[in-house]
Amino acid sequence: MIDKGALFVLPKSVSIAPSSTGSATSASNLLHDERALVWRSTGLTGTYLIVTQTGAWDTIALVGTNLRPTDTIRIRAAANATAVTTSPALDQTIVAYSGVAKATGSMVIFRLPVAVSHAVVRIDIVSTDNPAGFVQVSNLILGTAVEWDGIDTGAEVSYDNQGQSYLRKFLTKPTWKINLSGMDTTSYYNVWEDFCLAASDRRGFLFVPIYNDPHMQKRSAFVSMVGSPKLTFITGDIYSLELTVTTIQ
To answer: pTM value?
Structure first.
């Protein structure tokens, strides 16, 4: 087993409003799986997103951004829209990302040590002098991470080129075939079965195959399930779960 931990996050149902400076495209595009649908700010001043939701969450990810490693993300959360700016229960500023960005854009991943249930989340993005002149994000993921100790050794990664020409590299989609072994009946039916039921419906979700790794930025992806998850009985109360996922972003 590659024991650095693997994360899976299904996006919750949320509402998103962009900053008061307006936007060139709708913030609702962040809730679609299509890579071509993006949210793009108008200018670089006062750029933020307001997200409202119900229930618990511990992870936020911005997928397919045009941000740079030196840009910053400030995340505040509270019970209501007033408190999120005046007295937030959560207030943390992070760098946009570390490592080398993916060819399809960088990915910001913010994870809390424990789940919280703050209903309103404000995400301020500072990208001063961004050469594009705007901030762009393909997907926003807010949810609760499903974590396992790590993926088994022998994981298979393939690269499926879906373009008419091999020069069109953005149509090449990395696909992972992995096994998560050692889970018992309780952990499978309390956590993993619900995840598999939801993810198997072709929903996009965040996949971080190896967490806290120098190459996490390159490996992490917004993916969908390929085929059906397979649970295999090993011995006693031990099972192995086989998953195959293909990249959307």
So the answer is: 0.90
